[in-house]
Amino acid sequence: MRLSPNGLLWSSAALSILSHSANAQNSSQIVLEALESIVDCASCLAAFTPLQAVAQTGNDAFSDALAFVCDAAQLDDPDVCSGPIIAHDLRSISSTGQTAERLLPLPPPSVSVAPPSPPATRKTPIQVVHISDVHIDRNYYNEIGQPVTEPAQPFGNLNCDSPVQLADSMLEAVNSFNPAFVIFTGDVQTGAKLSCSVSDTMLMQCEVNTDLKAFNAEMLSKVTAPIFPSIGNHDSNPVNSFPRNTTDPALNVQWVFDTQSAGWEQWIGSAASQQVDHISGSYAVAVTDMNLVILSVNTQYWYRQNLWLYDSDTFQPDPNGLFAFMVEQLQAAEDAGQLVWIIGHIPLGKQDTVEDPSNYFDQILQRYKDTIAGMFFGHSHKDQFEIAYSDYDNQIAANAVGVGLICPALTPTSGNPAFKVYDVDPDTFGIMDIHVIFANITDPTFQTNRAYLVCLLRRSRNYGTLVGLPADSELTPAFWHNLTEVFTTNDTAFQMFNTFISRGGDVTPCDATDNCQNTTICDMRAFRSPNNCVCIFYQSSMLRILNGFHPFRTPTRAHSNLGGEVRVLLPEDRNLQNARASE
């Protein structure tokens, strides 16, 4: 081995190639053969050796060789192919480094892939339940005494997170549907435990660990169907805290992954539970007797309020390799002719998702859109959806390629406790209909009989006629886009949606005032966070991030114990007040 002037090690093979590159024709042949050898990621990385050898001969020789190859292969104009910058890059990076890997595109389809066509006669739909954001407060009490003089109701209060009794009643209601399976998109912990002192950290970890185990046990005891969970931003301590694997190992949250790996194994099996342990809380597993894979992703590594994302100047486009894991699993499913549901906690289009990973996720969606049959999230506590487009500058039904369905929360702090039931085609795994099941928590009879209302909303019945949806059609991305078009002109329909957001429990007026209606519709059309229209203030946002504040939770008496004060001063800058946090 020999050290090159820029510090890279060159093998004897590379030097041998270099010695035979005395003229442009030889260099052109080497470049051509290197490019022709590329058939997959491994061969692409292997091609770096001969290409780097030619680049070492100088910019002129490499540019001439590349231009010759482009012209001969009719790839592009020779002037466009001329590459002194490419030569510089090849001399500056290693074929085994992360930068080289980032040059590689997503693998092309190995087989012809098309979205599954609905059968001539559809089978009876299966039902799948979606639950999220349970936020169980195991210190909830409803006895008169200090510090309150009026007791909270036994099965929940709009000013408090979920008591255990409310969570149990929800799980019993879920089981009554006899679903084929259940998806849970995270957040077990109460939002009251927002932060703690260093001395409390180990105690809080122990408590969080105990609560995660307790809810796993409660789901197992009350729901007979398989459950496929994902991790939420509140399922750690401190809240939102998920250090990257490049951070000091002593600061990791492996204890969260260990706990959920063991707790989820009963539903996802040993292989997937090992993935939870070793791939930062993510896993992929095939659903028994179905042509469907559940891909559960820990979205907290893309969360703006995960402050561990800012502990280094080194750009890390794929923290802990989660995007690489997604591509690996999607490619395997595509090769096997399987369909995939992606589940995770934080929707990719919200303003608190970092823009870069939101864009990377969208690129993966564009590539595997015919394999991804559904995407499901929580976090916002609202009944919402986000549409992905192949061209965000031309948002029309024909360009709608995916939709993220967001589940409302169990916790009453954001409205009536609710969950969703999906009618699912067992062949295409497309959504045929959605039922939102909720509890009217302010109704005194609920506190005694715990009866969940059969249905607040059926998408096909409430919205289908507005867009001319045939009775046997799936709720495709185009359907959701057409619905947003209705919302722009039909205020009655939009106000119905606005009521459904909180399940009728905490309705916030939204109309043309302060541009609320347009902003909300824009948010529906934003599966990528850079495309949403929600404006937040830099200063108040930073204060809330530092204090562990959840952007979608309303501060109440029950959530006032922040356990510390913000010890930072931010400059007042009124010019920032109308700026978007993503800019």
Automatic annotation (TrEMBL):
Signal peptide interval: 1-24
Record has Lyase as a keyword: no
Domain of life: Eukaryota
Start and end residues of each Calcineurin-like phosphoesterase domain: 127-382
Lineage of producing organism: Eukaryota, Fungi, Dikarya, Basidiomycota, Agaricomycotina
Stored Pfam families: Metallophos
One example GO MF annotation: phosphoric diester hydrolase activity
Keyword terms, alphabetized: Glycoprotein, Hydrolase, Signal
GO cellular component: extracellular space
Name listed for the protein in its UniProt record: Metallo-dependent phosphatase
PANTHER family membership: SPHINGOMYELIN PHOSPHODIESTERASE (PTHR10340)
Keyword NAD: no
